[in-house]
Amino acid sequence: MTATIALVDDDRNILTSVSIALQAEGFLTRVYSDGEAALKALADNPPDLAIFDIKMPRMDGLELLRRLREKQSTPVIFLTSKDDELDEALGLAMGADDYIAKPFSQRLLIARIRAILRRAEPAAPAGGNGEEAAPALERGRLMMDPARHRTLWNGEAVTLTVTEFLILETLAQRPGVVKTRNQLMDAAYQDDIYVDDRTIDSHIKRVRRKFRAVDPEFDSIETLYGAGYRFSEE
């Protein structure tokens, strides 16, 4: 099935050039010149992945992401300027899946898109016959269903992005075992794509915040300073 990519940027040249490049790779594209125009369209008809410029008039990419995350968890890549480190960190903390600094290689952008879309694919059914769903992961009060990209804590739904889901799944698969940031990067990104330590740290903070919204006492993701993170099964 052909993936649909939404592009939101006030730079018409970027919209045109990236859209043409994506269409040449077999993607369908939808383009929007500002956040306000994109918000309702993306909320009502989510694409498979969205690309947001951070610096836009009327509604910037950070505000667009914040409001979109209230309704859905569509994978999002941010386009940033090289000096926008604070915005990059804030975007990741708000639930973006990745970011690319301008000027960027279209080949790199397409590689990142394909990597995230592969991560977003549901787990293959056991036996490959399309009938028996892949088994859910249950650890104490946590339940994760990879086939449906569904997460429950104490029976309450917790909406995670693709990256957040893969990081938590990696930790929960082996409770008590410390996972380094590099191991979590490998699990979440699964391709030869560089991300720095703060990316994983921001995703972990976001996951904790989401779980504490349904359970203020949530403390099952432990930080071991200098080592990494581990999941504590209660």
From TrEMBL:
DNA-binding region per UniProt: 134-233
Keyword set, alphabetical order: DNA-binding, Phosphoprotein, Transcription, Transcription regulation, Two-component regulatory system
Keyword Nuclease: no
Keyword DNA-binding assigned: yes
Domain OmpR/PhoB-type, chain residue ranges per copy: 134-233
InterPro entries: CheY-like_superfamily (IPR011006), OmpR/PhoB-type_DNA-bd (IPR001867), Sig_transdc_resp-reg_C-effctor (IPR016032), Sig_transdc_resp-reg_receiver (IPR001789), WalR-like (IPR039420), WH-like_DNA-bd_sf (IPR036388)
Pfam families, sorted: Response_reg, Trans_reg_C
Origin superkingdom: Bacteria
Domain (Response regulatory): residue spans on this chain: 4-117
Residues recorded as bearing 4-aspartylphosphate in the entry: 53
Origin species: Sphingomonas mollis
Taxonomic lineage of the native organism: Bacteria, Pseudomonadati, Pseudomonadota, Alphaproteobacteria, Sphingomonadales
Name by which UniProt lists this protein: Response regulator transcription factor
